[in-house]
Every structure is written in C-alpha cells, then in structure tokens.
Amino acid sequence: EKKKKKDLYTKNTQIVLASSSETRQKILKAYSLKFKVRPHKVDEEIFRKNHVHLSPEQLVMQIAKAKAESQVKKGSNEIVIGADQILFCKGKLISKAKDLNEAKEKLMFLSNSTHNLINAVHIICKEKTIWAKTTKASLLMKKMKRAEIENYVKLNEKTILKTVGGYKIEEDKMKLLKVNKGKLEDVQGFPISSFVSILKEK
Q1: In terms of Cα–Cα distance, which of 44, 16, 185 is closest to 117?
Q2: Which one from 84, 99, 172, 186 is the annotated catalytic residue?
Q3: Which of 46, 56, 140, 192 has the greatest number of C-beta atoms within 10 Å?
Q4: Residue 52: HSE in the Cβ half-sphere, 13 Å Cα cutoff
Q5: Closest-CA residue to 123 (of 75, 172, 82)
C-alpha cells in the first residue's frame, strides 16, 4: 500500500518523529535530516485488542496512522511521521515482551522458525495523509537451546524488551538470523528511504 503527494512541504517544514525508538531516530539521522522527537500517545496493546478484526497489514497501518495523528497539531504544517512494526509467526501475532522471562519464551517460540515482520509508515502534513507505505521482511531464526537463549537474553537485557522480536538485526553478534526477504530498514521497522528521497527533492 503506497500513497504519495508532493508540494505540501518545503525545506523549512519541521519534521516530527512520533516515536521514542532509538533505531528510527538513528535511521533518520543517517539521512542528515533535522527532526524533533515527540513520542506518540497510543497504547498499542489496547489498540490491538480493539481491532482484532483487522488483517496484520491493516492493523500495522492503522497503528502507525494513530501514532502520527496523536502528535498532529491543528493548523500546523509540520510533517508528522508515525511508524509501527508487528511480528507474525506460526499464525500468531507477537508483541514486545513485558519482562525478561517472557522474552525468553518468545525467543523459544521463534527458534528454528521463519517469521514475518510487517511494517508501516504513515505521514501526515496539514492534517492530511501525504504518504503511507507497508513493507514486509521474512527472517529465519536459527535453532537455539534453552541455555543459548538464557545467554542471549543476559547479553542483550538492555535492548531485548524494546523490539517485537527481542533482537536488533544490527547487533546480531550471535548470528541468529538469516534475512530471507526484505531490506535492512524493513527488518529495523522503518521503511522510510523512498519518502526521504521525495523530501530531498524539495
């Protein structure tokens, strides 16, 4: 799903990232763009429970849209970026672990299995959607024994609760993951490169 509309912004327009994600901030900085961070006000867990009728693709886009809308200021010409990522494995939607024990169980579930990461970016300017996109990535996590998972969680306890899969692909020192399909930014949950190229044309 993809929408584009130009001429709604200029080089002087303020970009707002409606996310506290360090990874998404790093990706935007890599493009040398100036932006503000205003974390969204969406309770993702409640949102998912209230929208169980949606497909994974619809759900992730609606959450990204809600995140952007939560930081839109009426009458402003800011570009507000909302983004979301969900993980789908063996017919189940996997959310971020709430604690380290839950993270271990989720990694055990993903072990020796292929899972899909579904991403959405929804961008609003002047209270209208100017760009929206969904992407997918497919990854295989190698088979791990319980002891390996325990060790992995211990080594990554500072970041493991911040991502849906319990991993950061750029920090995969144990070589747990093989990307079957998708770009790095799809795995990282922020497929923004095509929008940035439009923005840099201005």
Answers
A1: 185
A2: 84
A3: 192
A4: 4
A5: 82
Kindly report, residue by residue over 41-92, the tens digit of the pLDDT: 999 999 999 999 999 999 999 999 999 999 999 999 999 999 999 999 999 9
Task: Give the separation between CA 106 and CA 100, rounded to whole angstroms.
Answer: 10
Write out the two tokens for 58: 């619809």
> What pTM does this model have?
0.88
pLDDT digits (tens, 9 = 90+) for 124-142: 999 999 999 999 999 999 9
Choose among 186, 151, 188: nearest CA to 167: 188
User: CB of 6 within 8 A of CB of 39?
Assistant: no
Structure-token pair, residue 67:
């995140």
Among residues 6, 67, 53, 54, the alpha carbon closest in space to that of 189 is found at 67
The Cα–Cα gap between 48 and 58 comes to: 11
Give yes or no: 43 in active site: no
> With contact defined as beta carbons under 8 Å apart, do 129 and 123 qualify?
yes
Q: Are strands 177-181 and 128-141 parallel, antiparallel or unpaired?
A: antiparallel
Tell how many helices (H) and how many strands (E) occur in the chain: 7, 8
